[in-house]
Amino acid sequence: MNIEIANRLVTLRKRNSLSQEALAEKLGISRQAVSKWERAEASPDTDNLILLSRIYGISMDELLSTEDEIPVSYMDMEEEKLPEKEIREEEGEILSPEKEPDEYVHIGLSGIHCKDKDSEVHVGWKGIHVIEKDKDEVHLDSNGIYVNGKRYDSHFFREWAGVEFPFTLLVIAAFIVIGVLTGAWHPAWVIFFTIPLFHSCVEAFRRKDMGWFAFPVLIMMIYLLLGIFKSLWHPGWLLFLTVPVYYAIVGFIRTRKEKQLQDDESL
Q1: Going along the chain, which residue ranges are E strands?
Q2: Which of 37, 77, 172, 235 has the most CB atoms lying inside 10 A of its own CB?
Q3: How is residue 239 annotated by DSSP?
Q4: CA distance 130 to 71
């Protein structure tokens, strides 16, 4: 690893008041692994880089940057104050901040700022910031989504997609609509194969393991579509030969990850 990046990791850890042991516990690795990163003797893998960027509240680009300046995460920032720029009325009168109208749109180098009596929206280089009067404050940038200061990352949305999103009902409704409007009850029934595909895909992303993805179901769906629409039952069956190849690749990736974890724990 580049020594500048290693020093950056040390600075970020100390700035967040974390010991090597505490950081290692958050990452689920050994303290020795963290120590080797900070001595530039080893490099964190992609999964750990993602976790580090989340812990420190910065993007991966900022995490791996070799610039001297280390960005302040959104959680560490004081509430950003919008610039008190003078606003001109149609007649040309310059208004002071005290006379600022209740509703306006301002476009400048810092971005677009819209305000009405109930909310404010600022879209700029740092992201999108929305403030609703007496309600929620939402900030969206490359580091994630923050609602009233609480961060919701991709894990939250994977949970939502897998548990709350009514995909099965959506598929049933689509099947009924297609059948009623077009009379294509067959082959519209093939759409039901998307249900296990959707949920297995969510589970695979949640566990970061593509072995959970229902790959054979995908192959079966493709095979049926080729057979029904193109009459390619033969040689379409050759698609099934990809199933053992897929799981062989998944097994190889799993083995490498397990070996890397064992190496980290043995340090």
Answers
A1: 87-88, 94-95, 104-108, 111-115, 119-124, 127-132, 137-141, 144-147, 150-152
A2: 37
A3: G
A4: 22
HSE-CB for 113 with a 13 A CA cutoff: 13
Is 3-71 CATH 1.10.260.40? yes
* Predicted model pTM: 0.43
User: CA-CA distance, 137 to 130, in Å (whole number)?
Assistant: 6
In the prediction, which pLDDT does 81 show? 40
Contact 221, 189 (CB under 8 A): no
- Category of 221 on φ-ψ map: left (φ > 0), alpha (ψ -120 to 50) or beta: alpha
Do 112 and 122 touch, CB atoms closer than 8 A? yes
Q: 137-171: per-residue pLDDT in tens?
A: 776 665 566 776 666 654 544 454 445 578 889 99
- Lookup: tokens for 111: 């971005």
What number of other Cβ atoms are within 10 A of residue 212's Cβ?
17
User: What residues does each domain of the chain span?
Assistant: 3-71, 87-151, 158-266
Nearby residues of 217 by Cβ (< 8 Å), 6 or more positions away: 193, 196, 197, 200
- CA distances from residue 38 to 26, 126, 134 in whole angstroms, order as listed: 16, 29, 45
Contact between 245 and 262 (Cβ < 8 Å): no
